[in-house]
Amino acid sequence: MSKLELRAASGLAGLYALRMLGMFLILPVFAVYAGHMPGGENHALVGLAFGAYGLTQALLQLPFGMWSDHVGRKKVIYIGLALFALGSIMCAMADHIVWLIIGRAVQGAGAISAAITALLADLTREENRTKAMAMIGGSIATTFAVSLVAAPKLAEWIGLPGIFLMTAVLAVSALIGVWKVIPNPTISRFHSDAEANTRRLPQVLKHPQLLRLNYGVFALHAAQMAMFTVMPLLLTSVGGIEVAHHWYVYLPVVLVGFVLMVPAIIYGEKKRHLKEVFVFAIALMFLAQLGMTLWLPSLTAIVIWLGIYFIAFNILEATQPSLISKIAPTEAKGTAMGVYNTCQSLSMFLGSALAGWLYQHYNSATPVFALCASLMAIWLIVSWGMQPPLPVKTQMFHIGEDWTGSASQLSAKLGAIRGVKEAVVLIEERVALLKVLQEGWDEAAAQQLIAETN
């Protein structure tokens, strides 16, 4: 990667990580602290406040991404960060749970993830795009792990309002960083590999394999939000641990989850057993949620089930985007990821809202975990019939700006190269998208053909 690309990728990865702080930092402490404010005795309202962020994210992230095609990436990012900061301040100043719900909704309205991805695509060459996207993925995973450990101690020092004020300050800092650090793109155009296209939505929404994965990310994150709506309460009431010390539990289980995820992913990708690893992780997640439903008498049991949960969660969180990339039609990868991310955001709202209602109605965490176990059981059934993905990866090549040849003929020539499973030339984007075997494909032949266009 060039210095400019590295600067853009690292800066936008940091920006994306900051954006996720709005959800992750409050994840392990929200239920306890929100429960102590006026109106917080109603757990249904606490659940709504917890998940309101996800609802506005789901409604606005695709429209904001498309809006950035017309008004400019940075303008949309500035507006999104300003909304995020405003919502954070509203949450910090909230004196009733209803105002906290409104503030969380405003936070989520700053839905800039699609605009960030589009800007990253503008600022990176096709051959480096995958590396840049991986940097964003790594920043999200790191933010999640750090937040689970740091949030309980932060909440002890500055309280939940202090955490919201901190995220507001960071959002303003990020806005300045976008202005001063992130380069302005020379050319801004639509990128099928990174952005959603409304014309391709029917193709994606009717794709049976993608539908399985969309349900999967919905189930995974609905269960995550539902679990964290009640888990902090259980660690305090059943485990006897003060909120400030909840990280004693989260740190070891998160570390174990990350360590055991690595060999599972390597085995799935390198040995071509990705479906088996994927289905095994879903079964493991079902076991964890069923265990929480049936047997949660002590802190030891909580730690055991949380440990199993995080092993499964980390594997699933890492494998699902890889499966999307392998399965989605080459020209609709960005649209498939957009739908996938929307399902994830919507599930955050529904999972926490349902969990809050169940806890309020039954005064017990058992129905919440039963809901999570049911989601996992359905997912296990749905994923069982999934077709094993081909061992492929996506390769992108730039088409010369002055090239005036036939896109269909070039697509056919590229598609005939050994190891190429799909080839699409999108002349309006000046790019050739290839889905190729991970090993043994004739890259030199493809480069020779592409060189003729430059």
Automatic annotation (TrEMBL):
InterPro entries attached to this UniProt entry: MFS (IPR011701), MFS_dom (IPR020846), MFS_trans_sf (IPR036259), MFS_Transporters (IPR050171)
Subcellular compartments: Cell membrane
Mode of membrane association: Multi-pass membrane protein
Listed Gene3D superfamilies: 3.30.70.100, MFS general substrate transporter like domains
GO MF term (any one): transmembrane transporter activity
Membrane is among the record's keywords: yes
Domain annotation Major facilitator superfamily (MFS) profile: ranges: 1-391
Domain of life: Bacteria
Listed transmembrane segments: 12-33, 45-64, 76-95, 101-120, 132-151, 157-179, 215-235, 247-266, 278-296, 302-319, 339-359, 365-386
Originating organism: Chitinibacter bivalviorum
GO CC terms of this entry: plasma membrane
Name of the protein: MFS transporter
Alphabetical UniProt keywords: Cell membrane, Membrane, Transmembrane, Transmembrane helix, Transport
Record carries keyword rRNA-binding: no
Alphabetical list of Pfam families matching this protein: MFS_1
